[in-house]
UniProtKB/TrEMBL annotation:
Glutamyl-tRNA reductase N-terminal domain span: 6-156
Tagged with keyword Oxidoreductase: yes
Record text on subunit structure and interactions: Homodimer.
One example GO MF annotation: glutamyl-tRNA reductase activity
Record-annotated Quinate/shikimate 5-dehydrogenase/glutamyl-tRNA reductase domain positions: 171-306
Binding annotation for substrate: T49, C50, N51, R52, S109, E114, T115, Q116, Q120
InterPro entries, per database record: 4pyrrol_synth_GluRdtase, 4pyrrol_synth_GluRdtase_dimer, 4pyrrol_synth_GluRdtase_N, GluRdtase_dimer_dom_sf, GluRdtase_N_sf, NAD(P)-bd_dom_sf, Shikm_DH/Glu-tRNA_Rdtase
Protein's recorded name: Glutamyl-tRNA reductase
Organism the protein comes from: Desulfosporosinus meridiei (strain ATCC BAA-275 / DSM 13257 / KCTC 12902 / NCIMB 13706 / S10)
Domain topic, free-text comment: Possesses an unusual extended V-shaped dimeric structure with each monomer consisting of three distinct domains arranged along a curved 'spinal' alpha-helix. The N-terminal catalytic domain specifically recognizes the glutamate moiety of the substrate. The second domain is the NADPH-binding domain, and the third C-terminal domain is responsible for dimerization.
Lineage: Bacteria, Bacillati, Bacillota, Clostridia, Eubacteriales
Site (Important for activity): H99
BP term (GO), one: protoporphyrinogen IX biosynthetic process from glutamate
The enzyme's E.C. designation: 1.2.1.70
Signal peptide from the UniProt entry: none
Amino acid sequence: MFPVAIGLNHRTAPVEIRERMSFHPSQMLKALQELKECPGIQGAVILSTCNRTEVYAATMDVETGISSIKDFFSSHHGIEEKILEQYLYSHTLYDAVRHLFRVVSGLDSLVRGETQILGQVSNAYQQASDAGVTNKVINVFFQTALAVGKRVRTDTMIDQHPVSISYTAVELAKQQFGELQGKGILILGAGEMSTLTVKHLVSAGATTVLVSNRSYDKAVLLAQECAGRAVRLDDVDQYLAEVDIVISATASKHFVLMPERMQEIMKIRKNRPILLIDIAVPRDIHPEVGNIPEITLFDIDDLRGVVDRHHQERELAAIKAEKIIDEEMELFLKWHNTQSVVPTILALQKKGEQIRDLQVERALEHFSGLTPKQEKVIRSMANSIVNHLLHIPIINLKEYANTSQGHLYAEVFQNIFDLNVGEEGARRNMTKKRHAQGCHRRAE
């Protein structure tokens, strides 16, 4: 049974297509059940976020599985398949495994190393599991992937380096004050940058946020997003004398905070320290404000320097992450390849047991008066002979399964021992054989 991944993301599809292709949480259970009923799908997970929609499935027939998923996308979202084709990507077999490992590690995200995707993949897998549409391959696939995502973050610290101006501003505030809960924070401005900053502040645990803007109505709307409070621009000096942190991102063409004004405010504060973070362009805070005792000032260039350094650190961490993925891929592939010869091994063991039982019964017919203990010794000896005889061939077959010729060894075993592996085992070997031939042709 083989994994496949079909979908689209922020690189392959514009937002209007991603919106149409997304699955609302209320639709997910029904969608998963419909997907599981599609031809060739033995297990499945749907991952739907603002930046990607993907189906991960386990199938005995890769071509049928891919066709079914594309048909499912088309019919469920009402988009013609020929239109979808230009946005969709398909990853089959081991490429699908690597893709999910990279997705869950944040290496395929809009922002490298972002942490949200790990939880989103975990939720998607949990939904599929609760819906009863996963199987053994999907379970091992996703449980391994989630462990890989956690290992990447633990070993590389890739998510410890902020790579956006607004997020970096909040991180600087945390570095200066530790926990933000209970700290007085004043946001000057209510535009896009201020909105992003407020979201990061809330995520960081800030509870006391004031918002001031030239348009008081806009300040009210933004304050509502963080359970904060809007204050009028004319009253800002009063709050500058009280808060601990000021993050300024107005659209003013001139400096909003001048040295003389801040010197008077610091007198009212009795020189209690204050952190000023200016993320506006043009700047809101005169650079000489930073020379006033007990004022710490960061401007947009300071933050960009941090962001650039963090970008470099994330790139280095991403290189380490790819090496981790290579290691984990090898372990997963060894497990998956071994699964491909399981039907052959089971058939071989079954045949050995049948021969053992037949010969033991024939032998016992020639003996009379055996005690139960003596009969048990004979059966145990026969069982031991069969197990010892099959042990080395089975171990070797598992090793051969991890080579490009694994399917051939399985077929040889089946022919030599005249094994009946069943329809599923035959399909498994044929699919693996076609894949191996395809890989060989690509290598040429």
